[in-house]
Structures are given as C-alpha cells and as structure tokens.
Amino acid sequence: MLKRYLRELYGEKYTYVCEEMFEGIMDAIFGIISNNDYDKITDGMPIYAGFTVYKLNRYDDMYEILAPDFSDNDPTTAFKTDLTESFLVEYRQAALVSGLGITGKPFYSTENVLIEEGALEADEVIMTRVPTVDGSRWQIVKVGGSDDALSYLPDFYEIPACRLVKNYSWAADVLALPDNYSVRFRKGEIKKIYSDSKKKLYG
Fold first, then answer.
1. CB 89 within 8 A of CB 51
2. Range(s) of the domain holding residue 81
3. Is residue 96 part of a domain?
4. Are 107 and 198 in the same domain?
5. Distance (Å, rounded) from C-alpha 158 to C-alpha 50?
6. Cβ atoms within 10 Å, residue 84
7. SS3 of residue 133 by DSSP
8. Nearest to 43 by CA among 63, 26, 28
9. Torsion over CA of 40, 42, 44 and 49, rounded to 10 degrees?
C-alpha cells in the first residue's frame, strides 16, 4: 500500500511517499541526512543513497524527499514524490551482490555510463566497471563487431545511469558490482558474471 509518512530530525519535519513494505529503507536515508550539520541541510540538497540521488524539497514548514522520475527523458532534473521505484532498483542491485556473496560498490544514478553505438539494441553485450583516475565508470560494448578487427573503431556516447532504468533495467540492475567486474548479457538476460580476477561467478 502506498502511504505518506512524516518523521522529525533536528526539530525539522520530513515527509515522503513509498510502498509500506519499503518504509524501513528510510532509516538508512535519514542516517545519511543526519550526518550533515543542521545548517547544511537546505532546500534542493542532494542525498546520495546507494544508486539513487534523492533531493530535498522545502515547502511550508517541512522538507519533502523526492526521487528521480525514471520515466522522464531526463531523470537528472525530473523528480517525483513516490520513492518506490528507486527502492526497487536498490533492492534488485542489493539482491544481485548478496547472491554472489560480495560487497557492492555504489554507482550513482547521475554518473555517466559509456556506451558503444548500437550496444543497447544488440543481442549480446558486455558491461565492465573500469577504474578511472577519480573513481570508476561502467562501459557497455557489443559482443563481436566488424570481421575486420583492425578497421573496427566503435563510436561511443555517454548517458547518466538513471536513463538506463526506463528502457534497459537489465543494465541498471548490475551497477552496484565492484570495479573490474564484468557481465555478459544476451537479450537482456545475464549469462555470465566475472570477478575482478576474471573468475566466473555465475553462468
């Protein structure tokens, strides 16, 4: 059942909407908010919690916690009151890493994913989390390519990870895997998962 809740923190009121079964997740989000000094909690403040970057919206005498609207063409700027969809993404990501018996590493919804042209429409792709100077990023490439490997220079583009949720949830579900992990998909279904040491963990 979808419900609106009200909590208090530092004497301020906070309201949010989610399915009743997920309400316990808010304990972690309020833990993140409470790590900020009182005077640093302001209107529009982002809350980085797992995959999702939530936002505080001040109105009347309280804050409302908003989640990205993954159905919008630009979820980095479009927000909604119902947090349930974000919680479902978090749940699927957590279930995957837990099932593998590993510790996940958050990849925020606002971070960019590097994608080979045509990869999201291809039958088979490989996703790899590649370390960078300032952290890591995911890249998605097609399996195979040109018969002439020397002449095959693929084009890439970037999109924020939150845009994968709308039409390519299979890609969003693996984003909490650690650096140097890779996943092979066929038609949106996970076929193999490899660890950072190239050990096959699944498939």
1. yes
2. 2-91
3. no
4. yes
5. 21
6. 15
7. coil
8. 63
9. 50
